[in-house]
Amino acid sequence: MKGVIFDMDGTIIDSLQAHLHSFEVAGKKEGMKIDVGMVKSMVGETAHNIIAGLFPNKPEDEINELVREKDEYFQSVGWKQVKAMRGAASIIKELKGKYKLAIGTSASIKDVELFSKKFEWFGLFDVFVSREHVQRGKPAPDIYQIAAQKLGVEQRECAVIGDATYDMMAAKAAGMRAIGVTTGVMDRAELLDAGADAVCRDLDEVAKLL
Length: 210
Description:
Helices cover 45% and strands 14% of the residues. It is α/β, with parallel strands linked by helices and 210 residues long. The N and C termini lie close together (9 Å).
């Protein structure tokens, strides 16, 4: 193994509640009630796909407006509440030099930039791949395929660390090792059913596995 690709939200940063609240604020502003339970079930997808899933009859321009409202609130207010996951800084520092490191996220590049300023250890990653880099979000393998390409590593020589079923599905579709962590909304059984090769309680356990 030569490369390790981390999902971001729910894996190395604890951002679920901030994102959920941002969806609710955007929905309220547009006069729509957001089903938080459904949002949780779609964790790992892009904001666009989540909103399209919530409101399948909405025209594209209204979906895009909701995404804009959600991003605007999260990037001005919500992100300030986000904390690093326990063990995130230590595992990245431990793996740096042993493997090439990437973040492969369904979030926007603006989110990545904000957290790069907030958490100094984000500077240890070699590559960032966000939703802007792909036409298809997770569970399609595109994000992880591009991350491997940018790292200069064969896909079969990469491992993906993620908290969502879509992370596991995308990793396996890319021919990568899939390691789940139960730090998000998915449990061990759900991650295994989605194709995880291993499931860990947290990042400290992942570090021992690698």
